[in-house]
Structure formats: structure tokens, C-alpha cells
Design goal:
With 203 residues, this protein is of the alpha/beta class. It has a single domain, classed as 4-Layer Sandwich (Metallo-beta-lactamase, Chain A). 22% of the residues lie in helices and 33% in strands. It contains six helices and 13 strands. The strands form three sheets. It has a seven-stranded mixed β-sheet with strand order 1-2-3-4-5-6-7, with helices on one face. A hairpin with a 2-residue loop joins β11 and β12. The protein is globular and about 40 Å long.
Length: 203
Amino acid sequence: MKITKLEGLHVWHEFQADRGIDFNGYFWKSSAGGVLIDPMPLTKDEIQKIQDAGGVRWILVTNAEHLRAAPALKDVFGASVLAPSQEMGRLGEGAAHIDAWFEGQSDLPGDLGECLAVYPLRGGKSPVEPALYLKPLQALYFADVVRSHVSGALRLLPDEKLADPKLVAESLRALADLPLEAVLLGDGDSIYNGAREAFGTLL
């Protein structure tokens, strides 16, 4: 687990040899308590480090394929797992691990909703993929639709994996005016320097 340049945000990776990229999990020590975002498995030492930092209150799962280690870590930390209601069907039996469902920011618990915004991305491989905006950090998190296969550059999923590429583009353009210090990715290398320029190039 690495400390990022963003206050309270840590990241860890699991390399995917078939894709040549990392899958990422995030721990954010937010004002609402510890938050895990699409977590990959953690080692005992990493779990202890998070416990020492105050533990985890919330685990955010952005889509069915990113359930990942959330069920196991829910038990480890005694956390609540939140997921988009549009993914209920795709989660199948995994839905049993979800404690609360959300569609937008208004559905998040009060203190979590104060520091986290939710923007719907339509036209991806999920009906609606939530992009998460970590407001105090001015960091935008994408789970699947936006990714990186080359460090320092953003790309979309291939068109054949998108339900409607034009609708994806419209959803992303709606985020163009957000203050942006970083673009965080579930898949591939995040952008911590030049995030505004990289996102502009993608658009």
C-alpha cells in the first residue's frame, strides 16, 4: 500500500498479466471515516496499517465486477458496503453482501455525502457507472469506463465493450468543469500530475 500525494489517500495494486495493467484499490481517510473504494485483497500488514489509521467505516463498490475483496474486508473491518442500485441484478448472489444501495449523492449516508459526489456515466458496460468525486481532494475516480494502459494517458474501454460510446462521451463532458487535481482509476495507472490536461485530451 502506497501513500499518494493526496491527503489521506492510499492505493494498492494487483498486476493483471493478461492485460498488462494493475487493478487498484483505494483507502481514503475522509472526514466521514475510513473509506475503501473497489478494494483488492489486503495483506495482514496492510490491514493493520488501516486499523491503526482508524479503520474502515464504508466500502464503496462501483459495479458487479469490482466487488473484488469487499465481502471479506467487510467482515474484517465491520464496515458497511454500498453499491449502485443499477448493479443489483448483475451482482447476483454478491448482492447479499451489500448493506445499502445508491443511485446518486443524495442516497449516500449524510456525512459521506458531504465529502463525496456521484456522477452517472451512461453507455458503458454497466447501465450506469458512478464516477466518484472526492471533493476535498478534487479527485475523480473512474471504475471501468475510463482506464489507462500507458502511464500518463487516459483512454476509454474499447467501443465493442461500450453499450453507447456517444452517450459515454456526453456523460464525461458533463464533468469537464470540475476542479481536478487527480484522476483515479480502478484499472491502470492513475494521474496525479497534469490530471486536467490528461482529462482534457481524453475528452
